[in-house]
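Figure 6 in text form: structure in, sequence out.
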């Protein structure tokens, strides 16, 4: 089998991602489309020869999606094109239509990037442990015989935006929203398409910021986890007296909330609020949370009588455990929120609507509502360059085990010393260790971060 280093380099653990055209071009897109269509044709559950495809608003999208369609068609697939869509809308389509799907997007990455996310019918994940390496194998084989020029294919189009909006709204009682004023910063991404449709029939005043679809991101990057990208949203909230702000990433599958004072909510706080609301409707149900979520999340689940299951970071792990446990909800600190009744797929806008419903019913401001769900201080993720990841983690583990700490290795290393805890995980793609610390106070958190970093950086194990 011939190999192509460039093609192999853009295949990540869960998706494909690269700079266009230097790392990802039309010929590669054709080969990947062929590879995916070949793979899913052999999958008994969730596979088949009918595919659905969608893209975000990036300038490279039309050429690449045409190449994917041509490649998949050459492999014998029948394609339905959604056109422009958010990633969670593509996931919805794979359940609604019962077909595997490809989403052409680079999520929050800069304009020069593009990529692909893959799933089976019903939004079942496709990652390196569940078929993506087979897609790569076939794509490498076919890359040497991609036709030049790549043929243009006419395929059926499906308009599902309205159906998706109806589905999103089905998670709440619309009459409970009570006239909230919401500012949504779409960052010129797919939130500009989806948010107006979802809010169009809700009793909410929507102020849409940067709603024009523009893959050049002329106003600011579509990466809401970075505080500098929330400045315009915060200013609009404060200037207009809005109740809530919503910040979308580029493909609009993640939405971060900002309160009326301009303070962002963490993914853990949002997870805790949504878990609380869903457990009130589903007593005793199971809720998942990943290993870097705040300890508050597991406390809230227990206090509401739910069953909490801690998972590894990553959508493929969470979706698999959701299927095994019939969990109603799963949350990640990174802002991904999974719903059983959304084909176990993640959707930020569904999570946002659940929070809006809780907020309206409470009669309080979001800055007040959030307080019981923020019991500790978190460091945020801190990256450290480490040559010997395994050795450094083992040194840290041994140090704290000797102190009597509770230690587990579900995902990297998690050490719990009662009053404070931390998780230390290796990057899959870089020589980095990712540190998350949580402690009772800001001062204690800073001190514990310094303590762990000193151990990591001491040179032991490297």
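Output sequence:
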């Amino acid at each position: 089998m011939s190999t192509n280093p460039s093609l192999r380099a853009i295949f990540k653990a869960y998706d494909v991602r690269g700079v266009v055209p230097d790392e990802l071009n039309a010929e590669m897109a054709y080969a990947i489309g062929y590879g995916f269509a070949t793979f899913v044709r052999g999958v008994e559950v969730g596979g088949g020869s009918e595919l659905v495809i969608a893209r975000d608003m990036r300038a490279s999208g039309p050429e690449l999606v045409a190449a994917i369609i041509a490649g998949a068609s050459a492999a014998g697939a029948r394609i339905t094109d959604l056109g422009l869509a958010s990633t969670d809308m593509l996931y919805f389509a794979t359940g609604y239509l019962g077909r595997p799907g490809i989403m052409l997007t680079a999520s929050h990455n800069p304009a020069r990037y593009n990529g692909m996310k893959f799933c089976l019918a019903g939004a079942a994940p496709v990652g390196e442990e569940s078929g993506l390496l087979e897609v790569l194998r076939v794509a490498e084989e076919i890359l040497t015989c991609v036709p030049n020029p790549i043929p243009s294919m006419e395929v059926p189009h499906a308009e599902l935006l309205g159906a998706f909006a109806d589905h999103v709204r089905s998670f709440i009682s619309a009459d409970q929203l009570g006239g909230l004023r919401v500012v949504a910063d779409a960052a010129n991404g797919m939130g500009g398409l989806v948010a107006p449709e979802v809010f169009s029939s809700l009793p909410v005043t929507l102020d849409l910021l940067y709603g024009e679809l523009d893959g050049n991101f002329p106003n600011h990057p579509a990466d809401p986890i970075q505080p500098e990208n929330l400045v315009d949203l915060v200013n609009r909230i404060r200037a207009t007296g809005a109740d809530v702000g919503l910040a979308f990433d580029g493909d609009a599958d993640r939405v971060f909330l900002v309160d009326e004072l301009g303070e962002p909510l963490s993914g853990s706080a949002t997870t805790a609020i949504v878990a609380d609301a869903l457990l009130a409707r589903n007593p005793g149900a199971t809720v998942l949370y990943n290993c870097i979520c705040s300890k508050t999340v597991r406390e809230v689940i227990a206090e509401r009588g739910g069953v909490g299951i801690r998972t590894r970071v990553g959508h493929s792990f969470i979706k698999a455990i959701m299927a095994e446990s019939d969990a109603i909800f799963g949350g990640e600190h990174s802002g991904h929120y999974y719903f059983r009744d959304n084909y176990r797929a993640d959707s930020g806008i569904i999570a946002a609507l659940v929070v809006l419903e809780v907020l309206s019913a409470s009669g309080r401001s979001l800055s007040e509502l959030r307080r019981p769900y923020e019991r500790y201080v978190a460091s945020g993720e801190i990256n450290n360059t480490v040559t010997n990841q395994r050795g450094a983690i083992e040194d840290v583990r041994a140090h704290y085990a000797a102190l009597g700490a509770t230690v587990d290795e579900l995902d990297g290393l998690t050490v719990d010393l009662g009053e404070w805890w931390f998780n230390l995980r290796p990057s899959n793609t870089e020589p980095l260790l990712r540190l998350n610390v949580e402690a009772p106070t800001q001062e204690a958190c800073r001190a514990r971060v310094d303590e762990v970093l000193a151990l990591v950086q001491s040179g032991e194990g490297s």
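Caption detail: The mean pLDDT is 95.
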